[in-house]
Amino acid sequence: MVGPSRPLFVLFGSSIVQFSYSNNGWGAILADIYARKADIVLRGYAGWNSRHALKVLQQVFPKDAAVQPSLVIVYFGGNDSMAPQPSGLGPHVPLPEFIDNMKKIALHLKGLSDKTRVLFLSPPPVNEEQMLHCLGVEGRTNEACGVYSEACLKLCQEVDVKCIDVWTALQQRDDWKSVSFTDGIHLSSEGSKIVVKEILKALEEAEWKPSLYWRSLPTEFDCVAIDLVTQDEDKSNLSVSEFELERLLKWEQ
C-alpha cells in the first residue's frame, strides 16, 4: 500500500476487461480520467464466463479484506452466450445459469461493505463477419448477445444494481460494425470511448453518497502549486485541477 488512500475501483470480467488497457481501451481511459482521484485495479480474465467468475469470487473479493472497493465494474456474458458444443465443452453457460451466477456475483459484491457500489456492463454486440475473418470464431451471434444483455439488464433491476446497456449503446452509430471492434469482439478505441461515456453518465446520475463521479472526487495534493510552461499566458497560472479539468471536459461533450 502507498498513501494517501484513494477510492478503489475494480474492473472485473473477461477479455473485454483484461484488454481494456490496450488500444486506448476503456480501462486506460478511466485510469486517466481518475488520475489523482481513484485507483483503478484490473481483474480481467480472457476466455472466462460467469461460471469461472463465481468460482474465484471469494478469492478476488474476500469479505474480510482490510480495504474494500468503492466501485466494482463487472462484465461477463459474451462467452456465456456462445452456442453450446456437442462435447459439452466450451464457454457456453445456459441462460438460467448465467442469470443465477450474475445474481450471486452482484449480491456478494453488494455485501462487501456499506459503501461498495456495483455497476454491471451488459454483453456488447459483435460483428460476426469480422469475428470470423479475424479470429475464425463461430457460434457467437449478435442475436444471442442481445438475449444475454437483456437478461443482465432485467436481473440488475431485480437486485438494485446499476447496469449499462452496452449492446444497445454501441449500435447507436450507423457505422458501429466497422468502428467498434478490433476483431469483431474486442473493443477498439472508438468502442471504448462509447463505453467510457456511458460509465461516466451512470456515475454522474447515481444518487450515491459519496458520489464517485470524477468531478465530485477531490484531486490528491491539489493544494500544491506548480508553474505550468505554456505559450498561452492566460493558462500559465492555472491550478493543477483547473489544468486537468480543461483536458478532461471532452468526456462531458
Describe the structure.
The protein is α/β, with parallel strands linked by helices and 253 residues long. The chain has one domain: 3-Layer(aba) Sandwich (Rossmann fold), CATH 3.40.50. 35% of the residues are buried. Helix 4 links the parallel strand 3 and strand 4. The protein is globular and about 60 Å long. The longest helix is centred in the middle third of the chain and has 18 residues. The chain is built from 10 helices and 5 strands. Strands 2-1-3-4-5 form a 5-stranded parallel β-sheet, with helices on both faces. The chain starts with 7 loop residues before the first strand and ends in a 5-residue tail after the last helix. It is 40% helix and 10% strand. This is Lipase, GDSL. Keywords: Hydrolase, Lipid degradation, Lipid metabolism. Belongs to the 'GDSL' lipolytic enzyme family. One of its GO terms (biological process) is lipid catabolic process. One of its GO terms (molecular function) is hydrolase activity, acting on ester bonds.
